[in-house]
Design goal:
The protein has five helices and 16 strands. With about 240 residues, it is an alpha/beta fold. The protein folds into two domains: about 5-55, no CATH class; about 100-235, Hexapeptide repeat proteins (UDP N-Acetylglucosamine Acyltransferase, domain 1), CATH 2.160.10.10. Strand 14 (about 220-225) and strand 15 form a beta hairpin. The longest helix is centred in the first third of the chain and has 11 residues, at about 30-40. The protein is elongated, with a radius of gyration of 22 Å. The model has no long low-confidence stretch (mean pLDDT about 85).
């Protein structure tokens, strides 16, 4: 606790135990001022919050605005994981379905998600997904996610894929024994982040949680706080256990 640093953050924040102000990292400058600061006065500066803005207070008009809406830091794996899974709550703090504060994403012109035989509970499914899993619970499936039959996904963020595999791609992968893009058959995935363009084979088990020791390999990162994170583009063979 840092009692000397406590601030009046508002009633809602205080109820949640959030009594410290933090920089959101959103700054507004005139174009000329920004160029002058970076090219002339603070050429050696590398951080706005630590160097450029504090050094400008005595010379220029610097004002701050206390934001009282939803904001959270996603600077580490656990906070990134937690922020995404919080979107699956019945009424999340960051509500994507609020008419008064609409969120507009970049239009990708993808087909709708196709879901077959899957029990879904508190789950967000993005466009372009092909879902045949047995059950997905308290999870987020990103664009073009593909999850095969018999698979269970719980409390996980599947980030999806940057492209669809063509029939030729699928035939080539089958011939070489490489798993297809996405999550294979009869897998069990819990407390995990599956990064983009991952290939997970059949009968794979990924069970993150605080029972794990912190470790890292070229395929995945394990964290006591944030579960397991499968690295972007990783290929997880059949029967692998994390």
């Amino acid at each position: 606790m840092l009692p000397d640093w406590e601030s009046d953050t508002g009633d809602e924040m205080k109820k949640k135990g959030k009594v410290y102000l933090a920089s959101m990292g959103i700054y507004i400058f005139t174009r000329k001022m920004l160029f002058d600061l970076l090219q002339s006065e603070y050429k050696e500066g590398t951080d706005f919050g630590k160097e450029i803005i504090p050094q400008s207070i005595q010379k220029y008009k610097v004002a701050s605005y206390q934001y009282d809406g939803y904001w959270t830091d996603i600077g580490n794996i656990y906070s990134f994981f937690e922020a995404n899974l919080n979107l699956t709550a019945d009424l999340p703090e960051f509500n994507l379905f609020d008419n008064s504060k609409a969120i507009y994403t970049r239009a990708r012109m993808l087909p709708p998600a196709k879901i077959s035989g899957t029990t879904l509970e508190k789950t967000l499914i993005a466009e372009g997904c092909i879902i045949n899993a047995s059950r997905i619970e308290n999870s987020v499936a990103g664009i073009r996610s593909r999850i095969e039959h018999g698979t269970t996904v719980v409390s996980s963020y599947v980030m999806g894929n940057d492209y669809f595999e063509t029939l030729d791609d699928i035939a080539s992968a089958n011939k070489s024994g490489i798993p297809l893009l996405g999550i294979g058959h009869r897998c069990y995935i819990r407390n995990a982040i599956i990064d983009k363009n991952v290939r997970i084979g059949n009968d794979v088990r990924i069970n993150g949680g605080n029972h794990l020791e912190n470790s890292r390999s070229f395929l995945y990162t394990r964290s006591k706080d944030g579960g397991s994170c499968v690295e972007k583009g990783a290929v997880i063979p059949n029967g692998f256990v994390i």
